[in-house]
Structure formats: structure tokens, C-alpha cells
Design goal:
The protein is an alpha+beta fold. The chain has two domains: about 35 residues, no CATH class; about 30 residues. About 55% of the residues lie in helices and about 15% in strands. The chain is built from three helices and two strands; from the N terminus they run βααβα. Strands 1-2 form a two-stranded parallel sheet. The longest helix has 30 residues. It is rod-shaped. It starts with 13 loop residues before the first strand and ends with a helix. About 0% of the residues are buried.
């Protein structure tokens, strides 16, 4: 029985390095650079913000609105009596 040897060659034209500028994300940069150099790829960098940060911001704003309405209702109740 004959065996056939197959080699698969991959080609990466672009490497995307995403970062939130944290130390752990920064530690991935050397690997992204090495990968791009190895394949002769173009290295692209993208700064991203974590969704959690946005969620926390929206929650804080909602809490602020709720507190303002509550204070307004308390003032109206105190002045109506």
C-alpha cells in the first residue's frame, strides 16, 4: 500500500492585533509581530474597549437618573404638605 504525503501550506496576508492597552494584551504584541514577520503579513492594530466598561458606564448613568428622579419626588412630596 502506497502512502501519500500531503503538506498544507497556510498563507496569512494580514494579522490583526487587538488591544485594550492592558498589560496582558501588550504581552501578545511580540507574538503578533513574529507571526506577521514569519508569513510576510501586514500587521494591523486595533484598540478596543471592553464591553464591560461600557456596561458599567450605562449602569452608572441609569443610577444617576434614578437618583435625580427620586430626589425630585421627595422634594415635591415635602413641599406639597
Amino acid at each position: 500500500m502506497k502512502s501519500i504525503s500531503v503538506q498544507t501550506r497556510i498563507q496569512l496576508r494580514n494579522v490583526l492585533y487587538c488591544t485594550d492597552l492592558s498589560p496582558s494584551a501588550s504581552s501578545a504584541l511580540p507574538q503578533a509581530v513574529a507571526l506577521a514577520r514569519h508569513f510576510g503579513s501586514t500587521l494591523h492594530a486595533l484598540h478596543v474597549r471592553l464591553a464591560l466598561e461600557m456596561e458599567n458606564l450605562l449602569i452608572q448613568r441609569a443610577n444617576d437618573v434614578f437618583e435625580q428622579r427620586e430626589k425630585k419626588e421627595q422634594r415635591q412630596w415635602l413641599t406639597s404638605g
